[in-house]
Amino acid sequence: MISYYSMLRTRPMGRYHVQVCTNISCMLRGAEEIFDYCRQKLGVGHKQVTADGVFSLEEVECIGACSWAPAMQVNYDFHENLTPEKVDEVFDGYKRK
Ligand code: FES
């Protein structure tokens, strides 16, 4: 029953929880490719956590950043107009924290 509510979790996510929007505006601007890139880069799938516990990944519905699609949210930070290169920069930035 608890799994019905996407904001409630039955196990801990990573220190940095990456939520990639694949809803319509983002999808039209390459969000599926961005999500696939994140999966490859982190080596985890939807709602999975990296072995070191640093990152978790989730495919989500609209996060309200449609004008800057494709977009993702990491904890409370928004990252927009994503490209694979920008995803690399974002992940590297969190790894250095
Ligand atoms: S559709 Fe992706 S932020 Fe709205």
Beta-strand share of residues: 15-25%
The overall strand count is 5
Structural class: alpha+beta
Q: Would you identify the regions where 5 or more consecutive residues have pLDDT less than 50?
A: none
Across the major sheet, the strand order is 2-3-1-4-5
Q: Which ligands occur here?
A: FE2/S2 (inorganic) cluster
Largest sheet: 5 strands, mixed
What's the order of the H and E elements?
A: EHHEEEEH
| Helix run count | 3
| Distance separating the two termini | 36 Å
What value does the average pLDDT take? 95
Over the alpha carbons, how many angstroms does the gyration radius reach?
13 Å
Please state the overall shape, judged from the principal axes of the Cα atoms.
Answer: globular
Bin the helical content: 25-40%
Explain this structure.
The protein has 97 residues and is of the alpha+beta class. It is 31% helix and 21% strand. The longest helix has 13 residues, at 84-96. The chain starts with 15 loop residues before the first strand and ends with a helix. 22% of the residues are buried. The structure holds FE2/S2 (inorganic) cluster. Residues 21, 23-26, 62-66, 69, 71 line the site of FE2/S2 (inorganic) cluster (FES).
Key attributes of the depicted protein:
97 residues; alpha+beta; binds FE2/S2 (inorganic) cluster
List the helices and strands and how they pair.
Blueprint: E1 16-21, H1 24-28, H2 31-42, E2 48-49, E3 55-60, E4 72-74, E5 77-79, H3 84-96
Parallel strand pairs: 1-3
Antiparallel strand pairs: 1-4, 2-3, 4-5
FE2/S2 (inorganic) cluster (FES) is lined by residues 21, 23-26, 62-66, 69, 71.
